[in-house]
Design goal:
The protein is of the alpha+beta class. The protein is 49% helix and 15% strand. This is Imm-5-like domain-containing protein.
């Protein structure tokens, strides 16, 4: 299954042009065929698979049908012809925020291991969940997001494994709110997910460095 992420009016998020939107349960019209050689990021209709959808999260996600030539790139597919079949209506600001919270919660232990007394990122996630369910105000969430960003900044100023902690705090901050969320743009969910991914990567790198150092010490003692 292929997907296209667009603004709610059908305009492209990255680049120019506007897609033919589905109407009354009927797929959108086929977009005009692309002439010439397909080139990633330059010529062709750019789609993505489910595996790469997180890279392109945005306000509206559509299931797409493609035909003709297909060029496979690292995180996208470039096609000659495409049409929008239907919009995924389950993807809303509410579901996007909850997704962002889930991403942040997965890596929150990384932050709390490094800074156990700093509860600002955890509070940001909790306030966001309450906001989604109508139990917190936007001002409360904005304040919690600012606190989470401050926590991320404090961790970033440290060295070593604290970088992973900083990314974890950033994930919580993205979930809680920023200008993109305020504009009704679900791309912040992707930012939260990427911050969570970088937190996990940084923690893995730190663990790998620790193992390497331990192995070197063991070799020196042999």
């Amino acid at each position: 299954m292929l997907f296209k992420v667009l603004n709610t009016d059908g305009s492209a998020i990255h680049g120019k042009g506007k897609w033919n939107l589905p109407k009354n349960g009927t797929p959108g019209e086929w977009m005009p065929p692309i002439e010439g050689k397909l080139i990633a990021c330059e010529r062709g209709y750019h789609l993505c698979s489910a595996n790469n959808l997180i890279v392109w999260l945005g306000p509206a996600i559509y299931i797409v049908k493609a035909r003709g030539d297909i060029l496979t790139s690292k995180d996208k597919l470039v096609v000659r012809e495409a049409r929008l079949i239907r919009r995924l209506n389950a993807w809303t600001e509410k579901s996007a925020r909850l997704f962002a919270c889930e991403c942040a919660e997965h890596v929150l232990p990384i932050f709390e291991t490094e800074r156990p007394d700093d509860k600002r990122p955890r509070k940001a996630i909790a306030v966001t969940r309450r906001y989604v369910h109508g139990k917190a105000t936007k001002n409360e969430m904005t304040a919690a997001a600012g606190a989470a960003w401050a926590a991320a900044g404090a961790a970033w100023a440290a060295a070593g494994a604290a970088w992973a902690a900083a990314w974890a705090a950033r994930a919580a901050a993205w979930a809680a709110g920023d200008a993109a969320w305020a504009a009704g743009d679900a791309r912040a969910a992707g930012d939260a997910a990427w911050a969570a991914a970088w937190a996990a990567r940084a923690a893995a790198w730190a663990a790998g460095d620790a193992r390497a150092a331990g192995a070197a010490r063991a070799a020196g003692d042999a």
